[in-house]
TrEMBL record, chain A:
GO terms for cellular component: mitochondrial matrix. PROSITE patterns: ETF_BETA. It comes from Cephalotus follicularis. CDD domains: ETF_beta. Keywords: Electron transport, Mitochondrion, Transport. InterPro entries: ET-Flavoprotein_bsu_CS (IPR000049), ETF_a/b_N (IPR014730), ETF_b (IPR012255), ETF_beta_N (IPR033948), Rossmann-like_a/b/a_fold (IPR014729). Heterodimer of an alpha and a beta subunit. This is Electron transfer flavoprotein subunit beta. Its main location: mitochondrion. The electron transfer flavoprotein serves as a specific electron acceptor for several dehydrogenases, including five acyl-CoA dehydrogenases, glutaryl-CoA and sarcosine dehydrogenase. It transfers the electrons to the main mitochondrial respiratory chain via ETF-ubiquinone oxidoreductase (ETF dehydrogenase). Belongs to the ETF beta-subunit/FixA family. One of its GO terms (biological process) is amino acid catabolic process.
Length: 251, 330
């Protein structure tokens, strides 16, 4: 069985973002970019499944500007066998991403699609659910535990839901989206980084895949959130309780 | 505007976030919007929930009920099909759900079936097709305009759409309840995912996402043992307990307590942070709280820049003192 893992290139988790003065978006030039943390978890899970002998190959996919190839290289250095890069300019919203993934899945025929539950840039949390809908595959979102049964061709997925954990059993092929506590992703070692340089990344264009981008969303503006006004420093627990009771009225 | 609100219910009661979704639907325009609520499930609790839905908000014009065993466990596959089916019959301009784990799971899948782009996690509605949503975990706000075909599909953050208290004359306004005809409901997908089980957190304390008060511990608490002090304080206040990623990574508490960019986003009335330095990833998860209290021994900790009330001091003195002096939950 093959596992496909889409990965997204985003502003690094540790960078403090800056909104562009013209409000068209967030500054991304001269900013450190990395693989989306949830995508790292997805890739790690796929690699662990492969290493346990339940899958034969992990294919990493990325789409967008040319630099996505760097992110794919990171994925290959972590242990994916092959990469697929889809060249696309401009904003790619989740519906388009899901349609592109559907085409790639029709070509590659993986038994499992594992992806991050959301990207830490646009925070949409949509793509996995949408590609599952388009394919008619079952979905296990926000996974904190994944168990595969090769014989029965099912995946048992423990999901992080509001106020607890839910367990589902999904027939393969299926879509799984990863939550934070699923695993701790590995670091790419230097020998593996070197090895990744000779791994194959296949390139597609939207034209090759015959995917039409539907422009049904427009970004009007991006602005900074309102600043909180500076508060006061109190000197004792008694003063704090007094403020909370008589000024803020919250207790 | 004709909106369809996807409703969550449990034990015969409508979840408060679904009533917030109705409030959001109401705010789409100043005109008389028609708002239909869609409930699915099976058994007597579904019908009890439906009767409560009919009077939960004065703007509700219709309650639709899909009664079938297929909906016993809120799975995304049959629910997305149901939304698709109900929209085909009703031709709604908007389909709205709360940004709960249920709404996030179901709505994008339903949007894919309807071939439209959903807009998730909305915090502000400025007209029937223009919405504000946080990006970069709330470090920026993005205004988006929907220009596609009907329906415009949204999930809303319940904390941004408060529900006005139900007035006493709400009994006069009882929306009609009708059954969804499921005779053409397509079965093919519904067997591919099966509910196995559910484990819930201890229900003594409120859920982190909906609690009125949240007390959070950071690395400053130093150990899992010390978190018990915080739990005691939470118990007294009727508050939920949260933690920073640093505290989770250090193994003090499980990850489901994490507040921040990669954890839960909360916006309670009172947020009390103990031994939290205030990393941007953490601030992203709690910056919309109404009142923020920070207690830290380091006077330069960035958390003090967002706190309404700061107290520089030793946690291990302050927490027990607060537990003793604060009034019990109402």
């Amino acid at each position: 069985m093959k596992i496909m893992v889409p990965i997204k290139r985003v502003i690094d988790y540790a960078v403090k973002i800056r909104v562009k003065p013209d409000k068209t978006g967030v500054e991304t030039s001269n900013v450190k970019m990395s693989m989306n943390p949830f995508c790292e978890i997805a890739l790690e899970e796929a690699l662990r499944i492969k290493e346990s002998g339940l899958a034969t190959e992990v294919v990493a996919v990325s789409m967008g500007p040319t630099q996505c190839v760097d992110t794919l290289r990171t994925g290959l250095a972590m242990g994916a066998e092959r990469g697929i890069y889809v060249e696309a300019k401009g904003d790619l919203f989740p519906l388009s991403v899901a349609k592109i993934l559907k085409k790639l899945i029709e070509i590659e025929k993986p038994g499992l699609l594992i992806l991050g539950k959301q990207a830490i840039d646009d925070d949409c949390n949509q793509t996995g659910q949408m590609v599952a809908g388009l394919l008619g595959w079952p979905q296990g979102t926000f996974a904190s535990k994944v168990l595969l049964d090769k014989e029965k061709q099912v995946a048992t997925v423990e999901r992080e839901v509001d106020g607890g954990l839910e367990t589902l059993c999904l027939d393969l092929p299926a879509v799984i989206t990863t939550d934070l506590r699923l695993n701790q992703p590995r670091y790419a070692t230097l020998p593996n980084i070197m090895k990744a340089k000779s791994k194959v990344i296949k390139k597609f264009t939207l034209l090759d895949l015959n995917v039409e981008i539907k422009p049904d969303l427009e970004i009007v503006e991006v602005r900074e959130p309102p600043k909180r006004k500076a508060g006061v420093i109190v000197s004792s627990v008694d003063e704090l309780i007094d403020k909370l009771r008589n000024e803020a009225h919250v207790i | 505007i004709s909106a369809l609100v996807i409703v969550e219910h449990e034990g015969g009661a409508i979840k408060p976030q679904s009533v917030s979704a109705v409030a959001a639907a109401k705010s789409l325009s100043d005109d008389d919007n028609t708002i239909a609520m869609l409930l699915a499930g099976s058994g007597p609790s579904l019908h009890l929930a439906a009767s409560r839905a009919a009077t939960c908000h004065p703007s509700v014009s219709q309650v639709l009920v899909a009664d079938s065993d297929k909906f016993s466990y809120s799975l995304a596959e049959p629910w997305a099909k149901l939304v698709h089916l109900v929209h085909q019959r009703g031709g709604y301009s908007h389909v709205i759900a709360a940004s709960s784990s249920f709404g996030k799971n179901v709505l994008p899948r339903a949007a894919a079936l309807l071939d439209v782009s959903p807009i998730t996690d909305i915090v502000e509605i400025s007209g029937s097709s223009q919405f504000v949503r946080p990006i970069y975990a709330g470090n920026a706000l993005c205004t988006v305009r929907y220009t596609g075909a009907n329906p415009c599909m949204l999930t809303i953050r319940a904390t941004s759409f408060p529900v006005p208290p139900v007035s006493s004359d709400s009994k006069l306004n009882e929306a009609p309840i009708s059954q969804v005809d499921l005779s053409t409901f397509d079965e093919d997908i519904t067997g591919k995912s099966r509910y196995v089980g559910h484990t819930s957190q201890d229900t003594e304390r409120p859920d982190l996402g909906n609690a009125r008060i949240v007390v959070t511990g950071g690395r400053g608490l130093k150990s899992a043992e010390n978190f018990k002090m915080l739990e005691k304080l939470a118990e007294k206040l009727g508050a939920a307990v949260g933690a920073t990623r640093a505290a989770v990574d250090a193994g003090f508490v499980p990850n489901d307590l994490q507040v921040g960019q990669t954890g839960k986003i909360v916006a309670p009335e009172l947020y009390m942070a103990f031994g939290v330095s205030g990393a941007i990833q953490h601030l992203a998860g709690m910056r919309d709280s109404k009142v923020i209290v920070a207690v830290n021994k380091d006077a330069d900790a960035p958390i003090f820049q967002v706190a309404d009330y700061g107290l520089v001091g030793d946690l291990f003195v302050v927490i027990p003192e607060l537990s003793e002096k604060l009034p019990g939950k109402k």
